[in-house]
């Protein structure tokens, strides 16, 4: 059941800074599941991803879970956004991309 945050008990005098549309959650879950279903069969293959912010990354898709795509990228081969979380043991980097931020996903090999 949808309830305005200002109507929740214990929130007297609180000010709503942002409130999503009531159907937003359903739409976002639908889009996230569609993206996951499209890319999951291609784990282990090389892809190119463009995010909604215009960043483009290329690498091997190593995993997809309910929220993220994990891309194995070669060091120094791409202009990384250094604010993104990157797991970097020795010579290997995994770039974590949020599924609902992905705009275009191309299968390369």
From TrEMBL:
Cross-referenced InterPro entries: LSM_dom_sf
Annotated keywords: Membrane, Transmembrane, Transmembrane helix
TM ranges: 90-108
SUPFAM superfamilies: Sm-like ribonucleoproteins (SSF50182)
The protein, known as: Acetyl-CoA acetyltransferase
Biological classification of the source: Bacteria, Bacillati, Bacillota, Bacilli, Bacillales
């Amino acid at each position: 059941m949808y309830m305005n945050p200002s109507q929740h008990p214990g929130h007297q005098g609180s000010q709503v800074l942002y409130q999503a549309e009531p159907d937003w959650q359903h739409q976002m879950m639908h889009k996230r599941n569609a993206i996951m279903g499209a890319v999951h069969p291609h784990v282990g293959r090389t892809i190119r991803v463009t995010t909604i912010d215009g960043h483009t990354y290329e690498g091997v898709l190593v995993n997809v879970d309910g929220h993220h795509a994990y891309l194995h990228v070669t060091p120094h081969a791409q202009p990384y956004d250094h604010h993104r979380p990157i797991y970097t043991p020795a010579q290997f980097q995994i770039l974590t991309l949020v599924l609902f931020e992905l705009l275009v996903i191309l299968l390369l090999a």
